[in-house]
C-alpha cells in the first residue's frame, strides 16, 4: 500500500527525488546570490542583473519543490542514485542561466570593455554564451570539474563570470550533494544514501553530516594554503612581475580554487602556458596532487600530524608510483619524437643538470602534463595538439584512469584499476589450485575472501568495461564530426578528457565545434562524473519506474 501512496498527486518515490533535487537548487541559488555580490564589487551591473534573475528563478523552483513535497520520506539507495544523476544534470542546467542571461543583457559596447588592453582580439568571449548549448556546456564542464571551455579567451570574460566558473568547479570538486548534506543536517540513512550515490564510500566519522563537514574543513584549509602559494609564485614569476597586485591575487585565487578541485578552468589565455614559469608549474604540482588523494587520508594525516599516513593508503602509493613511471615513459616518448623547435623556452639551465634548454623544457612539460592528466586537473602548459599520437595516447590513458576514489578527480579511479589487475592475477592463480582450496587476497590493508574478491572484481570490471565502451563509441562519433587536421588519436584524447572530467585539449573543443559533438560532450562529462551506474539507474527508472 505504501508504494501506491502519493503526495499532492505525485508518487511518493518521485516526491522524495524531486524534493531533494530542490535542495540542490536552493544551494545553487545561494551560490548565485553570493556571486551577485562579486558583480557589485566590480560594478558589472549587467552581469549582476543576469545572476540576480538566475538566482531568483533557481530559488523559486528549489523552494517550491522542497515545500510542496516536504512530507516525502528520506531517500533510500535507489532514490539516492537517481537524485545524484538527475540532480547533477539539473544543477548544470540551472547553472547555465548566469552565463546565458549575462550574455544576453550585456550590450556589445560593455562587452568590448572587458577585452584586455593590447589584446590581439576585439570581442569578449561572453558573446558565445548567448547560445544555450554553449552555456550548458560551460556549466556542465564547471560543475563536473572537466575544464573544457567555450570561452575562446578567458581574460575577456567579466570578473563575475570568471569567478562563477571557478566557484562551481571548487564546489563541484567536492560534490554538490556533499555540500547540500552538510547544510541540511539530515541525520541517518537518508544522508548516507545521498553520500554514497555521489560515488563515495568511506566515512571519516560515524555521522555522515560530521564526515562531510570534516571534508569541507580540510578542503578549506588546503584552499587557503594553495591561494597563498599561488599568489607568491605568480608574483615571483616574470609574467607576474608585470601585473598589478590585485591581478596577481585574482589569478592566484582562481587558479588555486580550480587546481585543488582538479577542475582546470583558467583566467588566462593558454591556461598555465601563459606564465611559462617552472616555479608556477612546480607550485601547482602538489596542489593538483592534494586534490587527487582521498579526503579520509588527508584527515588521518592532519589528525596525527604525520605525513607518512598518506602512504598507508594503497591508492596514494599507486598514484605516486604512476607519477614516476608515467613521466619517465612520456619523456622518453616525446624526447624521441618531438622536434627541438617545439622547445627551447628555458634559459640559464645549470650545466650540472647535463641537459640542454630544449631537453629541460620537454621533461618539464611531460612532468606537468602527465600529472595534470592523472589528477584529472586539465591545466595545460604545452601545445599537446602538436604532439605525436604516442604522446597523446599516454596522456589519454592517464585521463581514463584518474586519481583516488574519494577525492575530487574523475576517471575510472585508481582503486578500480588496481582491483581489476589484482582480480586478473587472482583468477589466474586459481587455475593452479584445487577447487576446495581456501583462497584469500589482499587489497591495501583489507584481506578479502574468495566471495568478496570475486564481488569486488566483478563490480570494478563492469564499471571499467562500461566506461571504456562509452569512450570508444563517443570517439568514433567525434572522429566523424571534426574537421581536417584531426585524427582518431585527437578524437580519443578529447573524449577521454571530457569523460574523465579533465579539460586538456588538442584543439577540437571550442565554440566552432559541431553541435552534435558538443551535445555528446555534455553527456560524456555528466556520465563520467557519476561513474555511469547512477545514470543507468536513472535511465531504468525513466523507462520502467522505481519498482523492482
Automatic annotation (TrEMBL):
The keyword Transmembrane helix applies. One of its GO terms (molecular function) is monoatomic cation transmembrane transporter activity. Signal peptide: none annotated. The chain crosses the membrane at residues 21-42, 48-69, 81-101, 167-184, 215-236, 283-302, 314-332, 393-415, 457-479, 521-543. One of its GO terms (biological process) is metal ion transport. PANTHER family: TRK SYSTEM POTASSIUM UPTAKE PROTEIN TRKG-RELATED. Belongs to the TrkH potassium transport family. This is TrkH family potassium uptake protein.
Amino acid at each position: 500500500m505504501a508504494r501506491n501512496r502519493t503526495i499532492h498527486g505525485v508518487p511518493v518515490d518521485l516526491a522524495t527525488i524531486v524534493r531533494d533535487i530542490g535542495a540542490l537548487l536552493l544551494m545553487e541559488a545561494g551560490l548565485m546570490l553570493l556571486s551577485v555580490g562579486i558583480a557589485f564589487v566590480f560594478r558589472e551591473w549587467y552581469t549582476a542583473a543576469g545572476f540576480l534573475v538566475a538566482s531568483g528563478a533557481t530559488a523559486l523552483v528549489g523552494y517550491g519543490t522542497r515545500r510542496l513535497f516536504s512530507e516525502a520520506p528520506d531517500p533510500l539507495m535507489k532514490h539516492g542514485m537517481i537524485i545524484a544523476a538527475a540532480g547533477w544534470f539539473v544543477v548544470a542546467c540551472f547553472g547555465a542561466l548566469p552565463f546565458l542571461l549575462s550574455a544576453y543583457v550585456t550590450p556589445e559596447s560593455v562587452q568590448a570593455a572587458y577585452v584586455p588592453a593590447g589584446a590581439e582580439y576585439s570581442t569578449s568571449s561572453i558573446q558565445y554564451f548567448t547560445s544555450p548549448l554553449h552555456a550548458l556546456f560551460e556549466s556542465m564542464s564547471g560543475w563536473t570539474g572537466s575544464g573544457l571551455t567555450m570561452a575562446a579567451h578567458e581574460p575577456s570574460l567579466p570578473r563575475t563570470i570568471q569567478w562563477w566558473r571557478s566557484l562551481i568547479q571548487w564546489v563541484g570538486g567536492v560534490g554538490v550533494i556533499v555540500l547540500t548534506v552538510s547544510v541540511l543536517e539530515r541525520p541517518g540513512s537518508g544522508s548516507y544514501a545521498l553520500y554514497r550515490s555521489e560515488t563515495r564510500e568511506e566515512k571519516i566519522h560515524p555521522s555522515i553530516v560530521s564526515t562531510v563537514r570534516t571534508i569541507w574543513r580540510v578542503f578549506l584549509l588546503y584552499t587557503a594554503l594553495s591561494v597563498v602559494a599561488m599568489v607568491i609564485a605568480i608574483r615571483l614569476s616574470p609574467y607576474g612581475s608585470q601585473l598589478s597586485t590585485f591581478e596577481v591575487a585574482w589569478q592566484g585565487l582562481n587558479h588555486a580554487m580550480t587546481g585543488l578541485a582538479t577542475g582546470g578552468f583558467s583566467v588566462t589565455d593558454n591556461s598555465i602556458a601563459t606564465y611559462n614559469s617552472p616555479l608556477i608549474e612546480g607550485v601547482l604540482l602538489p596542489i593538483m596532487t592534494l586534490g587527487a588523494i582521498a579526503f579520509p587520508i588527508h584527515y588521518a594525516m592532519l589528525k596525527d600530524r604525520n605525513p607518512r599516513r598518506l602512504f598507508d593508503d594503497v591508492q596514494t602509493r599507486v598514484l605516486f608510483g604512476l607519477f614516476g613511471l608515467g613521466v619517465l615513459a612520456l619523456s622518453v616518448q616525446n624526447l624521441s619524437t618531438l622536434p627541438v623547435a617545439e622547445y627551447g623556452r628555458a634559459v640559464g639551465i645549470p650545466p650540472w643538470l647535463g641537459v640542454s634548454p630544449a631537453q629541460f623544457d620537454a621533461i618539464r612539460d611531460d612532468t606537468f602534463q602527465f600529472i595534470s592528466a592523472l589528477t584529472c586537473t586539465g591545466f595545460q602548459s604545452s601545445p599537446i595538439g602538436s604532439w605525436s599520437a604516442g604522446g597523446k595516447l599516454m596522456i589519454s590513458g592517464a585521463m581514463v584512469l584518474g586519481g583516488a576514489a574519494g577525492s575530487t578527480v574523475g576517471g575510472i579511479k585508481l582503486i578500480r584499476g588496481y582491483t581489476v589487475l589484482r582480480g586478473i592475477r587472482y583468477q589466474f592463480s586459481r587455475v593452479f589450485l584445487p577447487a576446495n582450496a581456501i583462497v584469500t587476497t589482499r587489497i591495501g590493508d583489507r584481506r578479502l575472501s574468495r566471495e568478496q574478491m570475486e564481488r569486488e572484481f566483478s563490480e570494478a570490471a563492469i564499471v571499467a568495461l562500461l566506461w571504456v565502451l562509452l569512450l570508444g563509441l563517443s570517439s568514433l562519433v567525434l572522429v566523424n564530426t571534426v574537421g581536417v587536421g584531426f585524427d582518431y588519436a585527437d578524437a580519443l584524447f578529447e573524449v577521454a578528457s571530457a569523460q574523465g572530467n579533465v579539460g586538456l585539449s588538442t584543439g577540437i573543443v571550442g565554440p566552432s565545434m559541431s553541435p552534435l559533438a558538443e551535445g555528446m560532450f555534455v553527456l560524456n562529462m555528466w556520465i563520467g562524473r557519476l561513474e555511469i551506474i547512477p545514470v543507468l539507474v536513472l535511465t531504468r527508472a525513466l523507462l520502467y519506474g522505481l519498482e523492482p
